[in-house]
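Worked Example 4.2. Read the sequence first, then its structure tokens.
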Amino acid sequence: GTSFSGNASLGRVVGFCQGVEPRRNAFIFVLAFVVADPDDPPPSGGPPVFPPPAPLPPCPATCEAGTAVARPSLAIRRLGTPPGDDALLFTGDVALPHPFSPALDPLATGVHVVVEDATGARSLDVLVPGGAYDPATRSGWKAAPNGLGWRYVNRSAAPPGGITSVVLKDLSRQEAGRVRFTVRGARGSYPIDPAALPLEGLLILDPPTAETGQCGRAAFAGPAPSCRGDGRSVVCR
């Protein structure tokens, strides 16, 4: 029942997500503390040294503040063959708050792509990382000269989540805030339970939680768009 809105950090909208239970001790409060003076150390020989806390897990990718994807299409094929060669195609248009704040910059932030079924199980949950295209690794992002498009390519042997291509086009000159996207996977493993349709797709341009609204949700709950599958493929449109 907790609500959290209108918060900012370093000029950006921020949210919060579930963390881990902190370690509990006999006392959970501080009565007093003294800043250690290196020129006048305490008689005990110095302040106690505590180990650093364990790293927190990343926030799960979500799209609570985003909008519905227009003309969505999601197809996953080659499900009847061994894992590792599944193919994915996820396309659509999403209307983002405009002017973009922060500016769209997948080279810096990457994008997060999620595919989940009706039970909430995720067959794909991957951050496509940022970074300019590197000929040595044959992966990375390229920006269009006019600044209105970006393309991610990964021709390595192990692309993240099997994602080999992401194309983003800023169509704000036609409609303010409209972004067209195409996500392709060619060497992935996307297990789908035919009994758990329909699927849902998320494209998160401000990962992981996009409190800025820079994300889109593609739902296929029917009657249209809807999903159909035969055990070898699932097509949602």
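Now turn to a second chain, presented in exactly the same format:
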Amino acid sequence: MSRFLDELQERVMCGDGAMGTMLLDAGAAPEGCLENLCRTHPEWVADIHRRYAEAGARVLTTNTFGANAARLIRHQLEEEVAAINHAAVKLARAAAHAGGLHVAGSVGPTGLHVEQIAERGWDRKEIFRTQLAALLDSGVDVIFFETFLDEGEMTDALAVKTELSADVPAICSFACAEEGFLPSGTPLTEVFARMRAAGAAVCGVNCLQGPQATVRLLERLPVLSGELLSAFPNAGYPRYYEGRFLYNPDPAYFARIAREMADEGARLIGGCCGTGPAQIAAMAEALRDAPIVRAKPARIDAPKPAAPSRPSVQIAAEPPADALTSSLLHPPASTPAAQA
């Protein structure tokens, strides 16, 4: 078992928070490639990792959410996948080293339907393979598949990871409405069971929902003995102002909600869009003595899902790193709107 999983078996762990939100606050251009800042402005990324480490995060996530060829091609950087991922891991590893923290290699979805991938003559598994090979070669402790909405895409990504390394564990995290269904109408409980059978060490949810909605979602998820669950909510619902999505997160509120998520069985808890070191510091303190919930029933029955309009959801435009909220709030007409 990996050092990451060993620790996760013994305690409720605090993850880090948003990367894109912090980079935008540091001065990054929203229309630019935030992942490439690992090479052009490494000091910004390094400072964010350092601040999360000091706040008490036990896991630092690389700035590689969109560092795959399908997304980087929009910035004419599709040939730089390996270089960007290597640079990102180096920065996270430097911040993690002193405290013995874990480095999670972030892998996001391609942002395209499988049909669109085929129309371009691409191979979805190969897109993931190039990024995953770079992250694994750089020595990440865990792969964090985050903000996926399509089970098929997650299945492809996880299969490639398993082919490349059976030893490095994977977190499979979906963006999901609080009712507990993917946009395809598939219950998250069924998806988690299939992901675990395919080799996922941790299953969870991130983005799309605020903290309280994430607790309600976790209430609908049973935890069987031995299962590991993660939760990385947004900092509530954003307010759009002058081209930016702004949040008003309260650290004390995050501390209280972190304990509630732990009570619902979440073992790895962090933040997504809009969260920062202040929220992570409050969560880390609140989780310091949180008891482990190794099994629990679902506390709320999931409602029946609405009929999906198509089997998979496209992430419309490339969002700034972790800030998928804008594209999920405003999907194209052909895409079923996900509740945000």
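Notes for the reader: Confidence is low (pLDDT under 50) at residues 309-340. DSSP finds 14 helices and ten strands in the chain.
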